């Protein structure tokens, strides 16, 4: 692969470098040399995958394989990553995607996602997943090796019209990515202000969810203040942090101004199927039955 202009997956590098993991890093690098379809990646990239899997080598290999394969096989979700492109700008206009300023007592980062424009006709689900993944890549770069993530999806204002905008191929790829490829330590997913049709939503996604992820899910009809320390929350939810809209605008500007070229360049990180020696099993990427990456569940 040609040399990249930017440092990936950490725009400003990984400092300090994790010590005492040379053996695991070398094992992954040697394995990747035997997999010509995989792209060349930096030691820092290897460390991100190892860290997300608690330095378990086998699980790390599975995550790497799934990560780069999905990025090649689902171009609707992992190409066209310019945050200033019309489709991506639309999603950033109608959603709020924010990382809250403070971390939990355990040192976990808290991410909050919600709709800011409730007109369901403006929502393209595949575009939304793409921007969601772009935002998360920026967060991994900013946070470096985070101890964990608590995710809050605020469904206030969602209606059945939004459900009709969900496309099954994009949903399948998204669920597979979150469960088996996203290199982070996911600790909890809170779905707040749950809607009346939550049973229909679960009917749609439950076949795509492994038991490990089900254990992380929490549904409540209450708001975020009922499930996380109010001191972490924006003033919209009774906390001391700036309003969600302000946080979104600041973090959107960071993505557009500081990460734009980095995100576009990141499209090169994918498998080359022409060089694959052994084809993946049909079930791995077609029926999404591959093993779920290791998680520590609190």
TrEMBL record:
Gene that produces this protein: LOC106118020
Ranges of residues in domain CRAL-TRIO: 87-245
Tell me what this protein is called: Retinaldehyde-binding protein 1
SMART domains associated with the record: SEC14
- Recall the GO molecular function terms of this protein's record: phosphatidylinositol bisphosphate binding
Look up the record and report any one GO term of the cellular component aspect: membrane
One Pfam entry name: CRAL_TRIO
| The organism of origin for this protein | Papilio xuthus (Asian swallowtail butterfly)
Q: What is the lineage of its organism?
A: Eukaryota, Metazoa, Ecdysozoa, Arthropoda, Hexapoda
Write down the PANTHER family for this protein, in alphabetical order: ALPHA-TOCOPHEROL TRANSFER PROTEIN-RELATED, GH10083P-RELATED
Enumerate the InterPro entries for this protein: CRAL-TRIO_dom, CRAL-TRIO_dom_sf, CRAL/TRIO_N_dom_sf
